[in-house]
Amino acid sequence: MPYISITGLKLKHKRHALRFWWYAIAAMAQAKKAEGLMAVDARTINGVHHTRTVWTNEAAMRRYLVAGAHLKAMKGFGAIATGKTMGFESDQVPDWDEVRALWETKARIVGGK
User: Fold this and answer.
1) Domain tally for the chain?
2) Structural domain span for residue 43
3) What are the pLDDT digits (tens) for 4-13?
4) N or C: which end of the chain has fewer CB within 10 A?
């Protein structure tokens, strides 16, 4: 069953935008080439930068998570943003209204306190 990952990051200050986009663009490029990726997209909703990725399985997502540009982004994001993330198996990809609702109610806080 596919694995869905939802992330949302909010900048601590607008002066961090350039650094955020530097990380985000590189991580998105890496994701698009990652083995096991089925779909990826991103949106900014109410000032929160969200990503929604669909993977063949959780193991594929975890391989991406701890490598390359994404790993660098994770190491640097705590200084510039706060965020929450979640993942789950599902045969249906949530639409963006569902993504936002799930992120608000079920995602766990990560780093960048």
Assistant:
1) 1
2) 3-110
3) 999 999 999 9
4) C
The pairs formed by 59-66 with CB atoms below 8 angstroms and a separation of 24 or more are: 60/3, 60/34, 60/35, 60/36, 61/3, 61/5, 61/36, 61/87, 63/34, 63/35, 63/36, 64/30, 64/31, 64/34, 64/36, 64/37
Please write the tens of the pLDDT for every residue from 56-104. Answer: 999 999 999 999 999 999 999 999 999 999 999 999 999 999 999 999 9
Q: Which residue has the tokens 């929604």?
A: 52
The enclosing domain of 37 has a CATH number of 3.30.70.100
* Band (54; pLDDT cuts 50, 70, 90): very high
Q: In terms of Cα–Cα distance, which of 49, 61, 113 is closest to 87? A: 61
